Amino acid sequence: MAIRAIDACVILSSDPHLSEYLPERWQGRQWLSGFDGSAGTLLVTADFSGLWTDSRYWEQAGNALAGTGIEVMRAGAPDVPPPAGWLADTLPAGSRVNIDGKVLAVQAHRQWQKTLTDAGIALDCSVDVLDDIWASRPSAPHAPVYEHLPPYACRERAGNLKAVRAAMAEHGAQWHLLSTLDDIAWLLNLRGADVPHNPVFLSYLLIGPDSAQLFIACGKVDAALMQRLEHDGVQTLPYEQAASVLACLPEDQTLLVDPARSTLASLQAAAFVGKAEAINPSQLLKSRKNAAEIEHVRRTMEQDGAALCEFFAWFESTLGRERITELTVDEQITAARARRPNFVTTSFDTIAAFGPNGAMPHYRATEGAHAVIEGDGLLLIDSGGQYLGGTTDITRVVPVGQLGDDEKRDYTAVLKGMIALSQAVFPRGTASPLLDAIARMPIWQTGADYGHGTGHGVGYFMNVHEGPQSIAYRATVTPHMAMEPGMITSNEPGLYRPGRWGIRIENLVVAVPAVETEFGEFLKFETLTLCPIDTRCIKVAMLTTAEREWLNAYHDEVRRRLSPLLHGDALAWLTERTAAL
Length: 581
Hints:
This protein has a 6-stranded mixed sheet, sandwiched between helices. Strands 12-11-10-8-13-14 form a 6-stranded mixed sheet. A 4-stranded antiparallel sheet has the order 21-28-27-24. It starts with 7 loop residues before the first strand and ends with a helix. The mean pLDDT is 95. By secondary structure, the protein is of the alpha+beta class. 32% of the residues lie in helices and 21% in strands.
């Protein structure tokens, strides 16, 4: 920083494709700070270093950064300004702030630029200072790309491109640049393994009026697949050529870009062509799963649920007889999934959190820090799988030893919130953040709350987190967040008591038609996830008759659909855990 005359450096949790999960090459914030949570911004000045992260990670970040000299800045807390605001309040006018423009979204750049410019501070996005100091920086991943084929691929590549071009025409655009990896993989019916847990690959896609250009590292696409892509009008070019091709786009034509999903460097490369800004059309198209995709997800949920039954049967029979740690839970649950047909990989790092560790919503056990499952307490397990026929994400909480009334009361409040959202009926097009209060009300009524959202979109053999819908009342409402039929979303209220326990119960649900009246179309949720909800943790007196009926009906469905896939101890466990309450 001193050599480059930089007064403050901001290290984002981002890559050139604005991914949530990052290849090692772009995990600079983790490398520099030691904090390995999925979200966080590191800010360094000559005499201060601070890491901004949201409430999911406050406790975890505090533990990870203790003694490092890096201050945990609790993003979202009333007395904590955002990083740009902190800089504006702290640095003198004339200062210079650096953020790498190759990993900074256009929309975010505008926000940073305004805040800093108003304070007389310059923003320099031309350099990546990590390259100056990270001597052993990993290279970009180079996993091969493969085709997602029928019957699991339920849409044709040519049809996807035609639908996007129709949206481009509505915006008067002849060209459309895609940087986000899940959009590219979905559009082209391709999958890869460049990003942990997400079946995507590093690339850019430029869609023109009659053809498309996929910018990808040489050797990742074999000759046969390359020929099939060319048949559908998709040419492959070296990854490094994206900027030069963008620079040559005609000045009298228009490029459609999503400022929230395109980096500053990408837009600067396309400096001469006209711009139209809108959400990537593929974001909306892929969020609405078609009937064939939803049916594959139902079958996938049966296999995933059967794997979980096998795991929990093993867990209960082994607990107390052998040493089980949080790491053991991860190993065993992943192994159970891997034995199921069409399993590819996990959809995120398993969260197995016992007792106080459960109070950290995104806690992850490591070899150096993990708990043994013994004594009394709650074990929270949040896990998921990537299958050819869908993506799963489920959280269950189970008792270990004896539970107190407070634990059962909290558990039941969370269950009531999950059931409330499961039963919701709402007008089609309702802004998804508005549904959040339905799940929170039973928890609010106990005087408690939770810091994370209640629901996120889920991909189809794709990223476990996808938009545009988000069930989170703190989210900024946009027209694109409307709930539509076919959207698969998580339903995961929680309650966390630091130093004591954490509770989250999560199912995936899909929006389906409910009824049409003179007031319009209404939607409801079909629950997709199939796994017993542990009734041993419930304070039964807190449930209404309707809530008990919902739970019993859910367990009847779980038992009916999973029984044919199980035998022996796993079947016996399923039968016991789905008994009527």
